[in-house]
Amino acid sequence: MTITGDYSYEDFIKYPKIIRNECLKEKKYRVLVDVIQVAKSKIPIVELFFLGERIANVLRDHIKMALVCDGEKHNRFLQKVATNRNALIRTFVSEVNARIWLTHDHEDEPFLEIES
Description:
This protein has 116 residues and is α/β, with parallel strands linked by helices. Helix content is 44%, strand content 16%. It has helices at residues 9-12, 15-26, 45-59, 73-83, 95-103, and strands spanning 5-6, 30-34, 38-39, 64-68, 88-92. The strands form two sheets. It has a three-stranded parallel β-sheet with strand order 2-4-5, sandwiched between helices. Strand 4 (64-68), helix 4 and strand 5 (88-92) form a beta-alpha-beta unit. Helix 2 runs parallel beside helix 3 (45-59) and helix 3 (45-59) runs parallel beside helix 4. The longest helix is centred in the middle third of the chain and has 15 residues, at 45-59. The protein is globular, with a radius of gyration of 13 Å.
């Protein structure tokens, strides 16, 4: 799934439910979401917190999501909020690493990213 356009909290808060519904409809439980092309200014930390909570509440540990983004450390905050609430999510700057992680079935083992 690729998301483009301008960042809007009102839109992004809806995506976890859209993703879940599509995954359930297709009976696919792993999804790669690319948000690199989203035009954004500085996203308030509180919005990242609520987005992380929403991802965790909607996807939980049922759907594994790789999020490809620009690599700024605020994206890691979103990941930490969601994973602390039992979501299977990880942020990446490389689509290659995201795809490898999605197929990696040993969540209790460390995942080493490939240098690009």
